[in-house]
Design a protein that fits this description.
The complex is a heterodimer.
Chain A: E1 8-18, E2 23-33, E3 37-41, H1 48-55, E4 63-68, E5 83-86, H2 98-108, H3 114-123, H4 137-150, E6 155-159, H5 167-183, E7 187-192, H6 195-199, E8 204-209, E9 212-218, H7 219-223, E10 226-232, H8 233-240, E11 245-251, E12 254-260, H9 265-273, E13 277-280, H10 283-303
Parallel strand pairs in A: 3-7, 3-8, 5-6, 6-7
Antiparallel strand pairs in A: 1-2, 1-4, 8-9, 10-12, 10-13, 11-12
Chain B: H1 9-12, H2 21-27, H3 32-60, E1 71-72, H4 77-100, H5 105-136, H6 139-143, E2 144-145, H7 150-153, H8 158-212, H9 216-225, H10 228-250
Parallel strand pairs in B: 1-2
Helix pairs in contact in B: 2-5, 3-4, 4-5, 4-8, 5-8, 5-10, 8-10
The chains are: A alpha/beta, B mainly alpha.
Chain lengths: ~300, ~260
């Protein structure tokens, strides 16, 4: 991260959020660049929804500051109309049908696009005569996704948007999101615990765990963060000496070891000499490994 | 730091902080049944039932001379309590949805307050019109009155003052219903009850004070001296105060 804040849509500085007995966010500092798709990744209960709620001023920090386009969002009508955040468990007025919710959203957002919304309503087959309260999980998700996309808000949050959507609907969401993002660049933040699902969409990864930011990097850089080596256990043991090991599996004399950091030209040469195989690490694996490592470190801290 | 120097005009354009109040107002009528059709139905049904009972009682009592022994009913309150509940719904359901649409709490409260005021004005008008209908028909021929109640319509300003009082009472009751839901959202069940108990204790304290001073006759006299218009003069600032309290509670309420 650089000190230059131009080009940032969201700045979060030293934000802590405490509930009675727990700390949901612990001194979080992170920024989200303008006109990009960000993945906010983390396990259930990591603090994703709390962070999004604070950025959108639905909640406020116990300590620290949040700025969206350089302004504090809480009670600020200069910046709030540029934000859209439909929660995963969003509550709607009693008896509301999908069309009522869309009409209200169209009224709230000046860039709302009805043509786009109607196309999405047809795509996702949103039922016309079912109350939102009575809809299936997937249908509710579709309503939230349509509000998020058609609002064309400058900063749009999706909270676990694929919940209950089937494979076809999920693909549809990803396709429409990318299409519309290309035509109308804006800032998206997608929260998810299913990482590989959205890995191809996102340009930037923010990984949160136990209320702390573990990682904040462009996806491209991440691909080189770790590598998995497969081959004879003794050869791998020799090769990985002195490197940080994220994960190890052995089956008889064959080992699979994931190490942190990219390999240098010389090291790649050495891998070939030792007759070892290199495998890329998927984003999901990398993030699982990094999260477990952080947890292990925390446990070690507590024990010492 | 040179924040925002490079941002496009879309992001930095100034707009009125109240530009979305009309939209927040319309949001309350997103489902027209809640603030319009259901209360209207309750209004009409409660009235209809009390007229029916009046006609039935009149038919039963052979020796009744209607003009000397008119019926007065309390059915005009039905729509009022219905609206108090509907205002509560606005707090429990419309408020979370308004947060998803990224309204500031201030704009949401203004929109809701204006919507309650519009509904209350309509209720006040309906109250006055219903009173006029009752007066014109001599209580539907059987002297049965639900709206044209002497204590409300016989002061200065007549039926119009009764309408004004009904409208203001409706607004106060709606802001109260809304306020209790927000109180619950902001402070949780335990503290909401503590507030309710504290209010009950204050009331008890006032009653004890009046009793110990032997001031009940004075209180009774004061009430007799009041009329719809003077009550309205007390209710109007009370309603405004309630609205302000509602806003200060919702400022840090979680949807």
């Amino acid at each position: 991260m650089s000190g230059n804040t131009a080009g940032q849509a969201i700045e979060v500085r030293s934000v802590t959020r405490r509930y009675k007995n727990t700390t949901a966010l612990d001194d979080v500092t992170v920024s989200f660049g303008k006109d990009a798709i960000h993945g906010l990744l983390g396990r259930n209960g990591a603090g994703k929804t709390t962070l999004m709620s604070i950025i959108t001023a639905q909640l406020w920090p116990s300590e620290g500051q949040v700025e969206v386009f350089g302004q504090t969002p809480h009670e600020n009508e200069q910046v709030l109309p540029k934000i859209c955040f439909v929660r995963e468990d969003q509550r709607y007025p009693e008896d509301a049908l999908a069309k009522h919710a869309f009409k209200a959203a169209a009224d709230a957002y000046e860039n709302w696009d009805w043509d786009f919304a109607n196309r999405l309503i047809a795509d996702f087959k949103v039922p016309q005569k079912t109350k939102i309260k009575k809809m299936s999980r997937g249908q509710k998700s579709a309503v939230a996704v349509i509000i998020g996309l058609a609002s064309r808000a400058e900063v749009t949050f999706f909270d676990e948007p694929y919940m209950g959507l089937d494979a076809v609907a999920r693909q549809l969401f990803y396709d429409r999101l990318l299409e519309d993002y290309a035509a109308h660049p804006r800032t998206f933040v997608l929260s998810s615990h299913l990482i590989d699902e959205i890995a191809h969409l996102i340009e930037n990864v923010v990984l949160i765990d136990g209320g702390r930011i573990l990682l904040d990097e462009p996806v491209e850089d991440l691909r080189d963060r770790a590598v998995t080596i497969v081959g004879r256990a003794d050869a791998i043991a020799e090769f990985t000496t002195g490197r940080e090991i994220l994960h190890e599996e052995t089956m008889g004399r064959i080992a699979r070891t994931t190490v942190l950091g990219a390999l240098t030209e010389a090291e790649q040469q050495r891998v070939r000499e030792l007759d070892l195989d290199l495998q890329p690490v998927s984003l999901q694996q990398l993030i699982v490994r990094l999260t477990t490592r952080a947890n292990a470190e925390n446990t070690a801290e507590v024990q010492s | 730091m040179t924040t925002a120097t490079m941002q496009n005009t879309e992001s930095t354009r100034q707009r009125s902080s109240f530009a979305r109040v009309p939209a927040a107002f319309r949001l309350q009528f997103m489902i027209p049944s809640s603030l319009i059709w259901v209360p209207a139905m309750v209004f009409a049904l409660a009235w209809g039932v009390s007229i029916g009972i009046g006609i039935w009682l009149d038919a039963l009592a052979d020796d009744r001379i209607p003009a000397e022994d008119p019926f007065y009913t309390g059915a005009s309150q039905a729509a009022l309590w219905c609206l108090a509940f509907m205002a509560g719904y606005a707090g429990s359901h419309t408020f979370p949805f308004s947060m998803a649409l990224s309204y500031s709490r201030r704009v949401f409260v203004l929109g809701a307050g204006l919507a309650f005021a519009a509904v209350s004005a309509a209720f006040g008008l309906a109250f006055a019109l219903a009173a006029l209908v009752e007066r014109a028909t001599n209580g539907f021929g059987v002297e049965s009155y639900t709206f044209d109640l002497p204590m409300l319509t016989e002061g200065p300003g007549g039926v119009a003052s009764a309408g004004l009082l009904a409208g203001l009472l409706c607004l106060a009751v709606m802001l109260l219903g809304f306020g209790f839901v927000i109180l619950f959202k902001r402070f949780g069940l335990m503290r909401m009850w503590l507030v309710l108990i504290a209010l009950a204790l204050v009331l008890l304290g006032v009653v004890m004070l009046i009793t110990s001073q032997g001031a009940w006759p004075d209180v009774g006299r004061w009430f007799v001296e009041q009329n719809a218009l003077s009550f309205s003069a007390y209710l109007a600032p009370a309603a405004i105060a309630l609205g302000v309290v509602d806003y200060f509670m919702i400022r840090k309420a979680v949807p």
